[in-house]
Amino acid sequence: MAGPSPSLVAAREADAVAASAVKAMQAAGAQADARERYAELVARHQRRAGRIAYHYLRDAAEADEAVQDAFVKAYQHLGSFREELPFDVWFTRILINGCLDRIKARTRRERWIVPIAVRAAMPGGDGATAERDVTERVAAPGLSPEETLLGRERRREIATALARLPERQRSVFVLSHVEGRTSKEVSALTGLNESTVRVHLFRAIRKLRALLAHDVAGAPGELKGKRRVTS
Amino acid sequence: MSLRERLGLAHLSDDALVRLWTEGLESAMPLHPHLAACAVCRARLDTLAHWIDSVGDTLRDEADEMLTPDRLASQQAQIARRLEAIDRPARVLAFPKAARAVISGHSNVRRWVTVAAAACLIAGFGLGQVFPVRRAIQQQHVMAPPTLTQPQAQERARVITPEVTSDEELLSDAFTRSHVQTLSALDDMTPHARDIVLNKRNKQYK
Fold this sequence. Notes:
heterodimer, A: mainly alpha, Rna Polymerase Sigma Factor, Chain: A, disordered C terminus, B: mainly alpha, 12 helices, elongated
């Protein structure tokens, strides 16, 4: 993570040009052209947006909806977009806010609903529905069944550990290490200052290591827990 | 970081390694003196970096598996539809003409209906004052009891008093009717109000 790469800089320039063009078309009333041009931006950022939304919401369908909402909202408010900020940063902020709203709404909703895992454990509950995680249904191509199983298990453990991080630490970790954002960008995306971003990142890694202790121990050249190695 | 670590006398703790790695992400920090000298800690830092990258990769792969080309294409189409819907003004469904005329707030008919209702009310009140209809009716009731002609009185007597003369005969006659007999079984099963009242009274007296 040593600053934006040349390809990223070029992509951002293209984004800025496209966003300005869409804005101008919207102002001129050429809505069809604006939509067509905006589709370029959607295609460019869709996958990344999907990843971020999925890591926040852990539900494929809800992540889909969040991404759609974010793109629609960004289109509607493109007039307020300032060109000095990269489009992807501005858009990601909209997306993250949408995801956080959904998480809040879900938390409120789930207060009144019996969780699926609990329901499955109840007498007469459907155990098959307990596993909603999409990774359970996706088979990795070209791997042996053992490797596939181990891979799934590891993914599930990592995803569970990530879900156990406090919201800010999770955001910072996902944006830094899954999306490859710099601390400055994460700061712009989350509204935290850069040093706070680093502190959250440090805590997130420390906690992840504690939660995935056996995964860390299993890695080559192991790093064991918090033990201090003295010479 | 402890003093021993700072002085490079001890190996760096895992937390110290994480902190060094986090701080050194973007800034070109000089290598920690201990790291420069200690191959073990350098290897541990590499392992840490590798592990963090692998966690990031795993999470990215997991999300990418969910984002199939079909899903992305349908999402794109859905976004396009929604954007189109924004630009298109909402379609208003027309209500039936009569209902709209009555419901609509801007309609002249509504105003006329209101005026007509008010006019009828005032007219009714005025007429009520001019012609004391209620008083006239009351007087009629008091002053003139209904007088029936001879055939009318006979007819009324026939309706009121049928052939039966006593209550017992009336009841026995009623019980012999077929539809009453079919209901009698149901009647037997149903608790009677008088039984309930009697039971209650008996309990009270006891």
